[in-house]
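With this grant's support, we have paired protein sequences with backbone structure tokens. One protein thus recorded is set out beneath this paragraph:

_____
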Amino acid sequence: MEYAEWKEEIKEVPIEDCCEMLGIEYRRQGSLLSILCPNPAHNDQHYGSCFIKNGRYTCYACGDHGDNIKLVQNVKMMSYQEATHMIARYANIPSWDDISYQQDEKEPLPLTDKQLKLLGLSSRVTIQHINGLEDVRPENGSWIRDLEGYATYIPETVNLVDLYREDKDLFNEMVIGKLFYRLIDLLTYYLTETFSSVKEQEATEMEIEGLIPLAYRYQKVCKKYGYDLGFVKEYKKKTITRIQTRSLSKFKFAV
């Protein structure tokens, strides 16, 4: 089972069951169930503003809305991961920690410490989870325009090894993005700048050479994530000119 599949199983737990788990009282108003808005900033004290429909809650007073996971996050002041694991325990769904331990107990991170350092990655990284859609562009936070509104994101700091074991697709996308832009920066500097010393030039060359094996490893799948690492072959052939290097950003294309 992949992490995305496990997370979908968590999201399928009825939000009404999560209300029971949290001790949230709800009242029926017409065909809908009304609860007090779970947003801590709202301090809702009257039913009739926040309703449950299609597995999500929406507060028409403050605009807060979300799925069962966000409901638990708001009420318990938990992180995204903590909320998913609480729902899993309540619904008797095996925790992802147990599943990933069984599946990937001995699966190592496919990057050496040296490669992590060259990519600018540490043992913990911050990823973004889609939080929901807003009708009006948010003033703060991360968001992206969607056909149905503005998709907002919430940050979550995770262990890099856990990210690799839980969501390899997201892990690969992050690594390839880091790799692409780091190589662009290094090659641009290497081929357009004047080095102050031979030592500085050699250090830059060592960085490039340290990343090239990764470029070859991910070259077959990089286009899936919107990147093209084909220019690395040109570097190895020593055929990239100064003029070509200034246009390396053209190797990035839209998905």
Summary: Confidence is low (pLDDT under 50) at residues 140-148, 242-247, 249-255. Residues 168-251 form one domain.
